[in-house]
Input
Amino acid sequence: MRFPAFCLLLLSGLGLGVPAGCRRAEEPFYMTDLAALRRLPEEDLLRMRDDILAEAAQLPDQPVEDELPAGDALATGQWRAAAGGSGAGTAQLTKLEKGSRVVCLVGFHVTRAPDLRVEYAAAAGQFRELGPLRGNTGQQCFALPANLGTGPITRLRIRSVIFQKTVAEADLTALNAEPDGSSTAPGKFSPSTDP
Output
């Protein structure tokens, strides 16, 4: 039986036992046991990063199909690849009936990698986390924090936090935007009823 190189490193004296990924489990340990990765010395983690990311990109897709909420579409953008990853689909910022806002990933596909998180940036450009990505294909929505206010969200990214590597990103453009960047009226967004 042939083990991936990073498993042999783990087995050669780091005292972590035999991770599930080394036992030919359905999902390798680095996708399910982030605590094991975090216990590794930083230099070992960095040395294994490219091998783990390359192997994770070959894993089967993990689809998620959230129901898309109806509301006013405020901004939209297209996902694109970053740093050797892949990204496709639409990112949409939607204002719901009660005033809260959500970011929805629609027709989405991104490279698999450990510890993927969805992050957003407002006009100032500082990224903040929305939450962990639950799957790498399909559609899923994330509520924006209530304390964020009503300012624009200008950019989204999908990032492997443990490896500090962005795999996909999307720039959002306000719908019905005026030349100064303000929005005159939101577009209506209704989720498709088609299967």
The longest strand covers residues 101-110.
